[in-house]
Amino acid sequence: MSIDEFLNRSGCSWINADGPQSDIVLTSRIRLARNLKDHLYPILFSDEEAQAVLTKVEQVVANPSPGSPLQGMEMVRMSALEPLQKQVLVEKHLISPNLAEESPHGACLISENEEISIMINEEDHIRIQCITSGLQLEKALEKAFLVDDELEKHLDYAFHEVRGYLTSCPTNVGTGLRASVMMHLPGLVMTRQMNQILPSLNQLGITVRGIYGEGSEAIGNIFQISNQITLGKSEEDIVRDLTTIVEQIIEQERSAREQIKKTAGVQLEDRIFRSLGVLLHSRIIESKEAAQCISDVRLGIDLGFISEISPAILNELLILTQPGIIQQHAGKTLSPFERDVRRATLIRERIRM
Amino acid sequence: MICQECGIRKATVHFTKIINGEKTEYHLCEVCAQGKSDTFINTFHSPNLSLNNLLAGFFNVEPKYPEPFETRQMTRCANCGMTFEQFLEVGKFGCAHCYDAFHEKLTPVLKRIQGGNWKHNGKIPRRTGGALQLRKKIDILKETLQNLVAKEEFEKAAEVRDEIRMYEKILQEGGDADVH
């Protein structure tokens, strides 16, 4: 299968990098946590009860009303998937590592364009997720609400007048909303401003993480910025506040890029083209090195040093160079060394187009 | 700013510790911050740090007057059997009823986690939350009514009063009006 075909079939709606501010913001993501009133939460429920939750959701999804966002979605149980298939879903951010690895009664529903995914029996009974390209949290929230309203027509949610949506963990209670934005911030990293920004963001109730969720370092200058507080503010306010902060970070990133271009023009150009050289010619490449080089090349495109490569390259290669997806493309399990060889080949083919 | 511990490296970790209202500020470099074992900042670098441990830290505040042992034993969710102590340990609720069972103890805990907030101010389920939406609407109208009376705009006040009565009637009948 050609890479083009593979990428098209990979379905990610955000791969084209065509959303607003998509030179810096890769994706905007909304997650809503919901639970069913009459069932114990996943931490305590029995096999039968887990099954009952799955059946309830399955019934709603099986009979969607006309025009419902649930149309065409099918429930897939985690137990029915191979480890590699689960890994691919995690790498595409469609399900959490927790659902893939630690939820024996877990299941997921994914829309055709992979914009909407619903996780069942993860930490909460239901987690609705909507991903959009670029900075458009409001649009993502709107879509997630449509799914939420549709499910709520048929399911009795655990809801409390004072506490809001009753989640399994008290860090999610109230709105159950986690809004997060994935950003490419090479300018702030290179000018060492990221370390100064982080503490002030924390004070504003904003969490910053590396690309693959909690505890991981930022690989390839990609950061995930999300709200920490879920209670006391309306969903619209949470999204608006986060958007304002992200817009400020975008401004700072832009001026950092300008600053580097001015003060370190040749060195920056050298770094960018060396990275392009590595991507164009290497035969073995580890994911970390690939991520750094891809980040440099994308910066080179944004700053006008490189013009013959599409800006979507960052998004495409970000997906394409991950271990699970490389193996899916190969159609078999590979050793780490074989993966590094395959990764180099995939990147070479893709970047020459 | 220079690290207040070693006085050599640049301070990159800043935090404020407040215990019983007494505020202490710390400005440390990463090395000293890591070495400081009497504060929670040590956990910044611990790979095994779980959210649960952090949560347990949030709850771990000695009450001024320790509760008698029997009362502590009593706080148990009748639906799923989880005790408040177990909740503190795992950092997760067993079921929706736990929120009611632990209600009194929960407000300070939520305030600590949720930046001082304890009351939901967002979406309400459309189908099951109909009565709640009505009650919220009535509350807002009552406030408007008071303002109008204070301003002696009695004609408008009468209209609002009628509207309140209408919604209260729907509420009494267990109705579900579209109040958007």
Summary of the model, kept short:
The complex is a heterodimer of chains A (353) and B (180). Chain A is built from 13 helices and 10 strands. With 353 residues, chain A is an alpha+beta fold.
Largest interface: A-B, 47 and 39 residues
Q: How would you describe the shape of chain A?
A: globular
Count the DSSP helices of chain B: 8
Say what oligomer this is: heterodimer
Q: What is the gyration radius of chain A calculated from CA atoms? A: 21 Å
Topology:
The complex is a heterodimer of chains A (353) and B (180).
Chain A: H1 3-10, E1 25-34, H2 47-62, E2 75-77, H3 83-91, H4 97-102, E3 107-110, E4 116-120, E5 126-133, H5 137-154, E6 159-160, E7 164-165, E8 177-184, H6 186-190, H7 194-203, E9 206-210, E10 222-227, H8 235-263, H9 265-281, H10 287-302, H11 313-320, H12 323-330, H13 336-352
Antiparallel strand pairs in A: 1-5, 1-8, 2-3, 3-4, 4-5, 6-7, 8-10, 9-10
Helix pairs in contact in A: 3-12, 8-9, 9-10, 10-11, 12-13
Chain B: E1 13-19, E2 22-28, H1 30-35, H2 51-59, H3 69-74, H4 84-90, H5 98-101, H6 103-113, H7 130-150, H8 154-172
Antiparallel strand pairs in B: 1-2
Helix pairs in contact in B: 7-8
What does this protein look like?
The complex is a heterodimer of chains A (353) and B (180). Chain A has 353 residues and is of the alpha+beta class. Helices cover 47% and strands 15% of the residues of chain A. In chain A, the strands form two sheets. Chain A has an eight-stranded antiparallel sheet. Chain A has a two-stranded antiparallel ribbon with strand order 6-7. Chain B has 180 residues and is mostly helical. Helix content of chain B is 46%, strand content 8%. Chain B has helices spanning 30-35, 51-59, 69-74, 84-90, 98-101, 103-113, 130-150, 154-172, and strands at residues 13-19, 22-28. Chain B is flat and about 75 Å long. The termini of chain B are far apart. Residues 37-48 of chain B have low confidence and may be disordered. At the A-B interface, α5, β6 and β7 of A face α6 of B.
